[in-house]
Specification:
The complex is a heterodimer. Chain A is mostly beta strands. Helices cover 0% and strands 49% of the residues of chain A. Chain B starts with a strand and ends with a strand. Helices cover 0% and strands 52% of the residues of chain B. Classes of the chains: A mainly beta, B mainly beta.
């Protein structure tokens, strides 16, 4: 069990560029979540996958944001035409069917939009 | 929609002392989970303790315990014998049992341990 991993850990991009983040959940976990955390705040839910199906999306997830989980394994979160307000920590978490209440978090990807 | 409020942005405690972090929440649901998560500086968030709303008994995990008051919608975390490694941001979180799978977090409390 290597835990939830995220790549990259840090990303600096210019406004208007597209960025993509990757999350690898714990291997036997079929549920995957994305959250966004701005400085000094608690994480806010973005989206949730069960296997490859995206079952929930927050209203925070504007049309510039898209998430995928092909084959129900790793997940990607893409932000198109980044804005300075997108600067935040993007957290991924996973859980299993057997312990759905316990979400294990990755280290996060810190995005800075200049 | 459910909301979680942590009214203490910062708390400090002397090493080996006891500290209590406060959390209140708002929901119309009768069954749910409540959590305390710890986020050390530059490290990932980890689960400290979990409480199921249908259980009257307060959860405990070693030096960590909760005071769950369902009618008052209050869920505080008590840390006994505070250690330097307890220094972190602490987040209270809510999750529905049915339906929405997301965690709803409070704003967090930064805990400092004074040696």
């Amino acid at each position: 069990d290597t835990g939830v991993s995220q790549d990259p850990r840090h990303k600096i991009t210019k406004r208007g560029q597209n960025v993509t983040f990757r999350c690898d959940p714990i291997s036997e976990h079929n549920r995957l979540y994305w959250y966004r955390q701005t400085l000094g705040q608690g994480p806010e839910f973005l989206t949730y996958f069960q296997n490859e199906a995206q079952l929930e999306k927050s209203r925070l997830l504007s049309d510039r944001f898209s998430a995928e989980r092909p084959k129900g394994s790793f997940s990607t979160l893409e932000i198109q035409r980044t804005e300075q307000g997108d600067s935040a920590m993007y957290l991924c978490a996973s859980s299993s069917t057997w312990t759905p209440y316990e979400q294990y978090f990755g280290p996060g990807t810190r995005l800075t939009v200049t | 929609a459910q909301t979680v409020t942590q009214s203490q942005p910062e708390m400090s405690v002397q090493e080996a002392e006891t500290v209590t972090l406060s959390c209140t929440y708002d929901t119309s649901e009768s069954d749910y989970y409540l959590f305390w998560y710890k986020q050390p500086p530059s490290r990932q968030m980890i689960l400290v303790i979990r409480q199921e709303a249908y259980k009257q008994q307060n959860a405990t995990e070693n030096r960590f315990s909760v005071n769950f008051q369902k009618a008052a919608k209050s869920f505080s975390l008590k840390i006994s014998d505070s250690q330097l490694g307890d220094a972190a941001m602490y987040f209270c979180a809510y999750r529905s049992v049915q339906g929405a799978q997301k965690l709803v977090f409070g704003q967090g409390t930064r805990l400092t341990i004074n040696p």
